[in-house]
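User: I need a structural model of Beta-glucosidase from Streptomyces bobili for a docking pre-check later this week. Nothing fancy, just the predicted structure tokens so I can convert them on my end. Input:
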Amino acid sequence: MPESAQSANPVTFPPAFLWGAATSAYQIEGAVREDGRTPSIWDTFSHTPGKTAGGETGDIAVDHYHRYRDDVALMADLGLTAYRFSVSWSRVQPTGRGPAVQVGLDFYRKLVDELLAKGIKPAVTLYHWDLPQELEDAGGWPERDTAYRFAEYAQIVGEALGDRVEQWITLNEPWCSAFLGYGSGVHAPGRTDPAASLKAAHHLNLAHGLGTTALRSVMPTRNSVAISLNSSVVRPLSQTPGDLAAVRKIDDLANGVFHGPILRGAYPETLLTATSKVTDWSYVLDGDLRAIHQPLDALGLNYYTPTLVSAADADPSAPRADGHGASDHSPWPAAEDVAFHQTPGERTEMGWTIDPTGLHDLIMRYTKEAPGLPLYITENGAAYDDKPDADGRVHDPERIAYLHGHLRAVRRAIAEGADVRGYYLWSLMDNFEWAYGYEKRFGAVYVDYATLARTPKSSALWYRQAARTGTLPALETA
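Assistant: Understood. Predicted structure tokens for Beta-glucosidase:
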């Protein structure tokens, strides 16, 4: 793989570059019925037969709620300078409205204090897909009121942690929340309504804008507010007009639907036209786009693999799978004329092609789309079938090669003028991988799910050396 090949020169990062790792609340915390926490949509979804692999749930996950001190000590030992985690909305505000449960906030206060004591910069994500079930029962993200409830929640958490946490992210991957949750139904809440998915996207955008304003009303001006987008790198199968039109459509549905209003204050006209048979967009009210179009302090980019598309009639035998889970329903509204193709090359355990050039291209795109806006890679990583050897060690050279290649792509972008200030490896440790249950291991730290013992994999030790020296260690040679 060319991007991960050894270079004659050391790959060294700027001194202030953040070396982080990321997790999310439902995937690691467990303790789903403790201290006043109520069900989120992922509790409900994972307990619905047939929705997750093996019927597995996040009830215990990796028990981070009780083991957070040990986990932070592990982060410090691995040389992390930053840690991105999410807050469980229903742990803080069980019904999604009204006053906070202080014991829920206290967990995050203690976690932040522990991180700061170890010299690790906390980055808080307010929403990583776990909507309180009571708000879903009232209509969920397709309902406008959910955006208002999010703003109130953002203010609560901002007031509690804003004096100690400088990095804030409103939403993680709103594309997944809208289109996998309400379009294809492979994520919670499991609904399959194309019009509802577009309404959800708009109200997630509105939640981001209102939440940003709410955070800034209660936090010091030094704090940074961002959003993490899983923007797709969409490439055409060929340069024919039909394939280029397919790219335009999917780029609008994957990227423009969010960065249009957030960065420019408008939805792409091509998106509105392409989806006009699905929705009339009448839920976009006067003032919404101004509310959404708040100045950002930074932008988070999550990247795993590029997307390859063509016009659907380009190859009738081509698979229509798009890498977002098995479903009879598409997450792409009004895109029946688009075919998705497997990109060539090595793949991870998720079946995703390994292509660091996509990360470079994504960074450079947003360097041009939002000049002057600092960027963070808020997720990047790979799942492999990791197993301990006879001595209990977990050797994962494939993940080391993956990280090496993608971090080289980041450094190349920095050399070309991109203002990338940090990288958050996904994930700190193996955890509940949504609908895949515990089948897929993304962690740099191995978790024995029977004992919950944590064992740093060889990739974690490689990453520790990178974090401590600011220079990528050499790859192993056979």
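Before docking, keep this in mind: The chain has 15 helices and 13 strands.
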